[in-house]
């Protein structure tokens, strides 16, 4: 694996997190609490691995941002998506562990109340993480 492989790895991790988050949501809606717990813990682990590889990549590339190659209206779409992704990713770094903590401590009422906010934000961050990768590296890469 090289430095240039890390963004694809990160997109894959975000994609896996998305599937796990949606699966966990479906499991809790169907009343399967034990399976929900296992799947959501897996989503947390995958997201934590993502965070480590994301920060590692940023360190290795000395914080240089990958330029976006799109022009016209798609440029606005990309930067709005990127801005909301970044802001909500910072929020989810607090919300997800806090929501997990309530569940681990057995405070299920607080867990449910927090999860109503955490779930859609975490899902959005995971999905837009994959989209950012495709926008930057596959659909509109900057011409060198």
Describe the structure.
The chain is built from four helices and no strands. It has 144 residues and is mainly α. Helices cover 81% and strands 0% of the residues.
Give a topology summary.
Layout: H1 6-29, H2 33-60, H3 73-104, H4 108-139
Number of strands: 0
The end-to-end span amounts to 22 Å
Return the string of H and E elements. HHHH
Shape: elongated
In the predicted model, the low-confidence regions spanning at least 5 consecutive residues are none
The structural class is mainly alpha
How would you describe this structure in keywords?
144 residues; mainly alpha; 4 helices
In short:
With 144 residues, the protein is mainly alpha-helical. It has helices at residues 6-29, 33-60, 73-104, 108-139.
């Amino acid at each position: 694996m090289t430095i240039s492989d890390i963004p694809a790895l990160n997109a894959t991790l975000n994609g896996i997190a998305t599937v796990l988050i949606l699966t966990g949501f479906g499991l809790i809606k169907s009343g399967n609490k034990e399976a929900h717990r296992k799947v959501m813990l897996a989503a947390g682990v995958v997201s934590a691995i993502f965070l480590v590889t994301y920060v590692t990549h940023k360190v290795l590339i000395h914080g240089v941002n990958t330029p976006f190659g799109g022009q016209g209206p798609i440029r606005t779409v990309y930067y709005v998506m990127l801005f909301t992704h970044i802001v909500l990713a910072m929020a989810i770094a607090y919300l997800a562990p806090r929501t997990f903590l309530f569940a681990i401590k057995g405070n299920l009422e607080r867990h449910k109340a927090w999860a109503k906010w955490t779930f859609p934000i975490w899902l959005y961050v995971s999905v837009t993480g994959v989209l950012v990768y495709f926008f930057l590296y596959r659909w509109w890469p900057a011409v060198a």
